[in-house]
Amino acid sequence: MYVAYYLHWSVDSILDLEHAVRRRVIEEIGRINEQLSAPE
Fold first, then answer.
1. Concatenated DSSP letters of the chain
2. If phi over 0 gives left and psi between -120 and 50 gives alpha, with beta otherwise, what is residue 39?
3. What is the dihedral of CA 35, 33, 26, 28, to 10 degrees?
4. pTM for the structure as a whole
5. Contact predicate 2/25, CB 8 Å
6. How far apart are CA 30 and CA 21, in angstroms?
7. What is the predicted pLDDT for the residue at 1?
8. Rounded Cα–Cα distance for residues 35 and 40 (Å)
9. CA 29 to mean position of chain CA atoms
10. C-alpha distances out from residue 27 to 1, 11, 13, 40, Å
11. Are 6 and 29 in contact (CB under 8 A)?
12. Do 3 and 22 form a contact (C-beta atoms < 8 A)?
């Protein structure tokens, strides 16, 4: 899972999150990845 890979959380912990919170975490990981991969 995307979140488990990047944050090293267990799948159970991720699935225990409310859907809106889980979606927000995924969006934030995406933003961080975009910033890190942007050319300088």
1. -HHHHHH---HHHHHHS-HHHHHHHHHHHHHHHHHHHS--
2. beta
3. -20
4. 0.77
5. no
6. 14
7. 76
8. 10
9. 4
10. 14, 17, 17, 22
11. yes
12. yes
- State the Cα–Cα distance between residues 33 and 11, nearest whole angstrom: 21
End-to-end CA distance of the chain: 29
Q: How far apart are CA 24 and CA 17, in angstroms?
A: 11
Half-sphere exposure of 1 (CA within 13 A, CB side): 15
Task: For residue range 1-40, list pLDDT tens digits in order.
Answer: 788 988 999 999 999 999 999 999 999 999 999 999 988 7
